[in-house]
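Why run this: before we spend reagent on co-expression, it is cheaper to look at a predicted model of the complex and decide which construct boundaries make sense. The entries below are exactly what would go into the expression plan.
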Amino acid sequence: MSDKRGRILLPLIAFVGFLLTWQVIVWIGSYPTFILPGPLVVAQRFVEAWLEGVFWHHLVTTLWEIAVGFTVGAAAALPTGYLLARSRLANRLMSPYLVAAQAVPILALAPLIALWFGTGLLSRSIIIALVVFFPVAISAMVAVRGVDRRLLEMARSYRVTRRQRIRLVEVPAALPGIVGGLRIGITLAVVGAIVAEWTGGEEGLGVLINLARGSLFDIPLLFATLALIALLGIALYGSVLLVERRVLARS
Amino acid sequence: MSDAPAPAPTAIRLAGLRFSFPIGGRSVPVLDGIDLEIERRSVVALVGPNGCGKSTLLRVIAGLLPSAGGVVEVEGRPVEGPDPRVGLVFQEPRLLPWRTALANVAFPLEVAGHEQEAREARALELLALVGLRDWAATRPGELSGGMRQRVAIARALALEPSVLLLDEPFSALDALTRERFNIELLRLWERIGSTIVLVTHSIPEAVFLADRVIVMSPRPAVIAADIAVDLPRPRRLADLDAAIVTRTAAEIRDQLGGATDDAFAVASGTVGHHDEPDEAET
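The model came back. Tokens follow.
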């Protein structure tokens, strides 16, 4: 009972503490709203914007981009990770490019991709997929490499085909590591979406941030949008956890 | 109890069997001409110093390692790759931790393409055979070490192999549990009637279980001695104190060579002749 109460109460206390600190900083520094609005102002603006329907279509656009980009990126990364783990040749050929691609900041790459593919769903999904790809591929590689060789020998003694080995032994054994990569991937997907939206376009939470900061000069709206993005990240992360728990329980 | 009138056909035939491991670019001979014929439905124990190639020999018979020359035949036909006629029980249970005991036992049947209903029914029979019928839905993490090894034995029996190979199957168990498991293994053997070859470090265990004890030499291994155990079946734990057991055990110790202390160290499995890694790890 006290355990259950603690699970809800402690994070709540921490959150209230965070808001209080924020408010105190605003009071002490007596910052104007366009530098640092207090939490109450932001909350008020958040509710306002939500009721006015400002957020809705931006949110849907971003969510849709993330759905497409994350799915494509993860779907490409999982077999790649497997290949990297099991083929020395593939590893030697691909890993320099993978690491190099990861080392180049997506912030620098995004405008180029927008230049080539426009500022619509296509280029945004590509950017998100690129961001998601690396952590998912690497964690899948590490997880597959970590599969107990003794289990593989056991499976071989029953004459498993390669497909059976992958489906019945390697994937379930690597699953905890793979979902760990997906967790990192989904949070990076949100960052990727905002970065992609900064390169232009009409809709999306990243576009809204640009509008609030620029032409609208509505700093409370900027903070409210940041809060929404944070909530979006938490919600997506939570849904990956849910899927993970269901998948791990079944396998 | 009574011997069959006709000579039992050969279950396993090894002739001039050689095997080498590539270690650091060169090839280290492990098995150096093994000749061995094992009768159908007999129990044979392999003993020998650590790292002499006992586990390697089992893997060659099971088709997990390719021989470097010589004959490996099971039931008169050569072994070429992992063989369903041979069931191998490893030193550790090697169960899939995400599967229930039942699904672990059903694994070989699933790989072989049996229908789900048929393989679950068969797996349940096998679990009953090793006394774990009530544990079918339990995952390995919640089973004791002995139970896990029983599940592994049931799994090895799933494809109805004519030969069951056991690689120090009870080495992780405490002495009392181990004695009980030896009795259980003999009861199981009486019911399934397969040929059993097991590797053990315990000389009393070898004598108690086996019809023949094969003593292997240090690496590169040859067969140093082939000792018949003249103890009637069915055997009971009290037989461990029989004079014939003591005499046979002494003979095996002699054949293992060296000082008695040395042989004792080998027998208890705590100290190796050499500081070589156990070949099972490779």
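Chain A has a mean pLDDT of 92. The domain at 35-250 of chain A is CATH 1.10.3720.10 (MetI-like fold). Bring this page to Monday's planning discussion.
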